[in-house]
């Protein structure tokens, strides 16, 4: 039988990236952390962590982290059934992966009623929407919002809806970089914005909307609000979710560089098949909210 303390220690090292940080998190000595990991590896006959900086879970370690996350959910559900009165006022923390644009628009509003009702805290890990499922696969979160349409092994997924993105800039930026219209030469020199170097949505849009497959200069900003502010300041053009726009188009503060063209990004909620009462409540809240506020067609390409 696996020792829960060893699994807890593995999760702490994987989360913090180091034995010393995990020791502080668990209020243990670094030698105690090392001993627990060593005992776990001896029990399994293989390493569960890389001895790198930061330390990362091996394939065996990732499977253990998934198992540990599911154990926590099952334990919480059991305790709620056995003694709901004493558990009622205690906070429970769930780790979830969310893409930045969802977090900046609909996510908090969708889950807020559940957080208030159940004394629930969220440890939100932000990543690009095409890569949040890696957080779940590696055992860091119990669920994630992402673009993967296929469930992760051992998990389930629900379609939430699509977020529509428009390619926008200030009139001044357009006059400076696109005086003769949007063409390949102009796209090659006009600065855009990427969430990270993993972000491929801008390339996808330009390929589909303008048949452009070349390179372009770009800012890298891991912040949805940063995208909006840089664009409003006339420093770049980029794809912005319509849910984040205020009166930008109506007032003329921003203009659409590709009128009538857009890209819809489908979003899915992934979670492990073993769900606690709390994670089920989160799932239901997101489905209900997104059913009203996100586009429910499954378009995933540039369109007119």
TrEMBL record:
It comes from the Bacteria. Residues 2-58 form the HTH lysR-type domain. GO terms for molecular function: DNA binding; DNA-binding transcription factor activity. InterPro entries: ArgP (IPR017685), LTTR (IPR050176), LysR_HTH_N (IPR000847), LysR_subst-bd (IPR005119), WH-like_DNA-bd_sf (IPR036388), WH_DNA-bd_sf (IPR036390). SUPFAM superfamilies: Periplasmic binding protein-like II, Winged helix' DNA-binding domain. Keywords: DNA-binding, Transcription, Transcription regulation. It holds the Pfam family HTH_1. Belongs to the LysR transcriptional regulatory family. This is LysR family transcriptional regulator ArgP. It comes from Chromobacterium paludis.
